[in-house]
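Suppose you are handed a protein chain with no further information: no name, no annotation, nothing but its sequence. What can you learn? This example shows the usual starting point.
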Amino acid sequence: MFFIILVIRKTCVIITIKMKQLFYFIFLSAFIACNHPSQGNKAILASTASATEAAADGLNRHPHFIHYSKHAKCRMDCRHIDESEIKSILENGQINYRKSELNGDACHQKYAVEGYAKDTHLRIIFAPCEDKVTVVTCIDLDHEWECHCPGDNH
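A reasonable first move is to predict its three-dimensional structure. Written in structure tokens, the prediction is:
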């Protein structure tokens, strides 16, 4: 038989358990500790909340994961746009509803988001789905760049 002292909200509780129950108690305690909103878990909880709560405009501005399509990576390369600029536009840009495709369910919508990053006027096409956002393509609205990306019609 084991004696376990628990401190729950500044209250001491002493319980006795048998050897068989000890494993379940340790497992349950570890699970609760990992999922309790303590100091160490605040960032995880904030990230989970932001991933599931889209902004009022319907676009999740702080997704858990940003995926870059092959086309977007190619466009970023030839237009000298980096991931920090993409994130800046996602977080701070304005949705151009005329260029967006918002018909269909949540995982089949595309948002055209425009703004300035490193003095460059950009339009980024984002396709959100649950806690992930895919960057479909990126456009420099001030400069024409010669790009030869797969799927381009020349």
